[in-house]
């Protein structure tokens, strides 16, 4: 479908096929229904119900019950197959080597946190949230696990590796939406969400907010950069160096 943004995710093809199937089925059902209505206008009315009840029952089955059952079966199949695809993206057990990133929606921006070399997200405290001072997520400096956490305004991921996103909101309901990855999930304050996917095609993909979350909603945008594995390692190391430098710069002021 050429009106969709180019797909860059491994699961995206299945989504596009399902969407195409759904639209095709609905379109053809609409055409058939209209054709039957038009035909019914011009077909001569049956004079009377004089035929035998057995014959009438059989024709009712073939003309009404069977088409109805077929349509019900079609819709059940559409429901089951789309729910299956939906559920696959929300499986909690991602691959063991999955890249872990925490996504936080804040009026009106997205933040992406990488757990750093220790592989564990440090503690965050709402009382410590201070974006102007460079701590938009409220990382707790007294927790050693938070010292290596990387907070980035853009999402950078290596192509071909599974990713597990942990989604949270700091204020209101936001909608995490990457059209190019065929991903969309609301983030709700007080709830932790999960999404798993594998970016496949390197490139830059817009990240949007799909819930009207306030006056600045329209500018709540970020981007996903899908890069090669080597480029990803390089980027991560560069960010890690910045985190270390900042920690050293802040160290004298925090210790009296
Ligand atoms: Cu938003």
Description:
- The protein has 256 residues and is of the alpha+beta class.
- Helix content is 36%, strand content 22%.
- It is built from 3 helices and 10 strands; from the N terminus they run ααββββββββββα.
- The chain has helices spanning 12-42, 53-88, 229-254; strands at 99-106, 109-114, 150-152, 155-158, 163-169, 174-178, 183-187, 193-197, 203-209, 222-227.
- It has a 5-stranded mixed beta sheet. A 5-stranded mixed beta sheet has the order 4-10-9-6-7, covered by helices on one side.
- Strand 6 and strand 7 (183-187) form a beta hairpin.
- The model has no long low-confidence stretch (mean pLDDT 88).
- The chain binds copper (II) ion.
- Copper (II) ion (CU) binds next to loops.
The amount of beta strand, in percent, is: 15-25%
Radius of gyration: 27 Å
Q: Main beta sheet, described?
A: 5 strands, mixed
- Helix count, per DSSP? 3
Distance between the termini: 62 Å
Q: Indicate the percent of residues in helices.
A: 25-40%
Mean pLDDT: 88
- Ranges with pLDDT <50 over ≥5 residues? none
Question: How many E-type strands?
Answer: 10
Structural class: alpha+beta
What ligands can be seen in this structure?
copper (II) ion
General shape: elongated
What order do the SSEs take from the amino end to the carboxyl end, as H and E?
A: HHEEEEEEEEEEH
The largest beta-sheet arranges its strands as: 3-2-1-5-8
């Amino acid at each position: 479908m050429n009106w969709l943004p180019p797909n860059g995710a491994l699961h995206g093809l299945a989504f596009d096929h399902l969407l195409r199937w759904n639209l095709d089925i609905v379109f053809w059902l609409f055409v058939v229904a209209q054709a039957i209505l038009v035909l019914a206008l011009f077909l001569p009315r049956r004079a009377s119900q004089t035929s035998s009840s057995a014959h009438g029952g059989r024709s009712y089955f073939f003309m009404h019950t069977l088409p109805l059952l077929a349509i019900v079966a079609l819709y059940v199949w559409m429901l089951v197959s789309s729910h299956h695809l939906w559920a696959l993206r929300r499986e909690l057990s991602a691959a063991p080597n999955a890249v872990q990133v925490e996504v936080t929606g804040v009026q009106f921006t997205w933040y992406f946190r990488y757990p750093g070399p220790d592989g564990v997200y440090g503690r965050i405290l709402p009382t410590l949230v201070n974006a102007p001072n460079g701590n938009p997520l409220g990382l707790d400096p007294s927790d050693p696990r938070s010292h290596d956490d990387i907070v980035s305004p853009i999402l950078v991921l290596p192509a071909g590796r599974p990713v597990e996103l942990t989604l949270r909101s700091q204020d209101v309901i936001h909608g995490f939406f990457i059209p190019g990855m065929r991903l969309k999930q609301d983030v709700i304050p007080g709830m932790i969400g999960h999404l798993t996917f594998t970016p496949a095609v390197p490139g830059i993909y817009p990240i949007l907010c799909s819930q009207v979350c306030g006056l600045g909603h329209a500018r709540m945008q970020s981007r996903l950069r899908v890069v090669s594995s080597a480029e990803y390692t390089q980027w991560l190391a560069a960010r890690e160096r910045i985190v270390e430098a900042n920690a050293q710069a802040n160290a004298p002021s925090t210790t009296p």
